[in-house]
Design a protein that fits this description.
This protein is of the alpha+beta class. Helices cover about 25% and strands about 25% of the residues. Strand 5 and strand 6 form a beta hairpin.
Length: about 180
């Protein structure tokens, strides 16, 4: 997927995911891209991680056609995070690029605040972007010289927005940062 499309938009880059291991995912919760669905677990940590995975899954799906208006994006992202995702997709669209491949994620909760009734989570991940790339949006997906991928530290803030957990900000470090 268009991992490096977001580089420069957040200052330190950004990525996207299709899974939490070797399984391919979609925007529909599955064991591979969501630790649990909201119906299965309602703990704040589980819901925050589901929103984080959902955001990257939606971005991954949107990247297949470089669609900044993909309806799934707003289900999982808001604020700065949503703007960064949309800007990356708009940039790819202008350049005639689409995403291919997948990024593997394994997020964990670093903190939940406030302790009594959490409304914000800090999430840390070491995303592997080595399986993701951008290609020209032509019938054969002709190669585009993309920067090499690898393991990248991702820090995100996931917050309650209305009645839903959504990623509100994130930053991705360079290759080799984790």
């Amino acid at each position: 997927m268009a991992v490096l499309a977001l580089v420069g938009l957040v200052g330190i880059g950004a990525g996207c995911t299709r899974g939490d291991g070797d399984e391919e995912s979609s925007s529909t919760p599955t064991p591979g891209n969501q630790s649990t669905s909201p119906a299965e677990s309602t703990t704040p940590g589980d819901l925050a991680l589901a929103a984080y995975r959902g955001m990257w899954s939606a971005y991954d799906e949107a990247g297949l056609t470089s669609n900044p208006d993909h309806p799934e994006l707003v289900k999982f992202a808001a604020g700065d995070a949503l703007e960064v995702l949309r800007s990356g997709l708009e940039s790819d669209r202008r350049e005639g690029l689409v995403g291919q491949g997948e990024v593997v994620v394994n997020p964990s909760i670093q903190s939940l605040t406030p302790a009594a009734a959490p409304t914000q989570a800090k999430v840390r991940d070491c995303a592997d972007t080595s399986g993701a790339t951008r290609v020209r949006a032509t019938p054969n997906g002709t190669p585009f010289t993309d920067s090499p991928g690898g393991r990248r530290m991702v820090n995100a803030t996931v917050s309650m927005v209305g009645e839903s957990w959504k990623v509100t900000s994130f930053g991705v470090q360079g290759v080799g940062s984790c």
